[in-house]
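Following up on my earlier thread - several people asked me to post the actual chain instead of describing it. Fair enough. Here it is, all 494 residues.
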Amino acid sequence: MSRFDQFQNLNGPRRLNRLVQVLLFAVFIFGLNQLSFTHYSRVHTAGPGLSSETLSRLRQLRTRQSQEKPVKVAFTVTISESSNVDGEPELCRHLRSLLADFEEHSKTPAGPLVTSTFLDPYRNRAEVDKLIGDYKLAEPQAVIVRSGERNCVLRLVDLVELKEGKTSGYKDEQALVSALLKVTSPDTQTIYFTTGHDEMKLTSSDPFRGLTTVSKNINQRNLATKDINLALERDIPTDAAAIIVPAPRTPFTPAEVDLLRRYLERAGRVIVLCDGTYPHGLDRLLSEWGLRTDDMVVVEISKSHLANGRDMLVSDFGDPHPVTQILLDYKAPVYAGISRPVRPDPSSRNPLVTLTPLLRSSDVAWGETGYREKNWGYNQDADLRGPVTLAYAAERRVSQRLGVNLRGGRLVVFGFGDLVTNLRMFNFGNQYLFQSILQWCAEDQPDLAAAPHPVEQVQLAASRDQLNRIAGLIAAVPGAVALLGLAVYWLRKS
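Reply from S.P.:
Thanks for posting it. Predicted structure:
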């Protein structure tokens, strides 16, 4: 009989076999835990569904489908689910769930009116590059909404709510419904740019005085752009979403100013970009709104607030306001050229107008009155001491009886005119600041009932006794299996 056939000689291999099994099981558990830490998904088990307002909009879309020609909306999402960027994979999964609900509630006998396609910027590089070229995207991560020949582009910042630079919630439902309405609405709003005063031109590709880049940016939001010569108009067109005064170099006439005044009284929106030292002729209108632009030049000497050349690097965004909130969240500076101060007019106070400073210089800057002279220097008696405000937002509310306030006009005034030139629009801060101004001034967002979905950490609230019970239930099954194994082992051994 060989030594391997003897019973006592089999104990060693059996012990080794059991040891290997234990080691393999430990490796399996360790690997499973590693996978759970690196590849996980947050699932909303009790989160809110689509709001009643969103469901109403989708029902309206189905009604139009039965009454008119088909209205179909395609969502193309170029946000990666495998990205290493904090919050991006969670947003992508959230969008998948949300758009699946959109498709479900837009179903008709002919199929869903809302469809969605997800393209990973890393795995579907060719398709995403084509979209970047077609829609002039500043970043690959976007949501493109299309219906026929109309389209609207949503950026990452349009989909998330930031707090202290981190994602605190998702506002994608509001943004998606707003985009859906824009591409399916039969009417298109127009942003008008004034002409006739040597303003910057929409059709010019000049880097310093051209506006072709900002024109494309506006068109991406499903808004049209047109020139308007106020001297040839009796009234502002009814399709005007906003009037932009792009750095005039000759003054407006009283008749033209009166047109802008009446437009603002009808809850219009006007964005004024002053061209440094050139007169604009809007002083009386601005004074009625409680503002003034002094005949000065802002002199900045702080090195931390200066870019290449004489450009100012503005990073102080005044009081909290929807226009500058995105710049505060991303800590993105704004480039500005020659600027004049914009500040409240002490001789004109209107209790119905709310004024908010948007951009400020450093504390060591000042407003120079003698800028036409060769030797500049701070004059305590004549100059304006810093920090100097470079931009203001004004909002008027129309007071009604019974204590009801109706929304009035909105006016934004910048002391510099190169905020949106072709050269400046390549800067993140300038681009996003203008888009925020456009959002605040020209676009009426749907009044959705749903608030942004918060990114929450759920904590289990339980007493010590309840926790002990839970621990007992969790340990019961594996404990019973372990006891059964020990019993079998003891029986076999005996």
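The radius of gyration is 31 Å. That should answer part of your original question.
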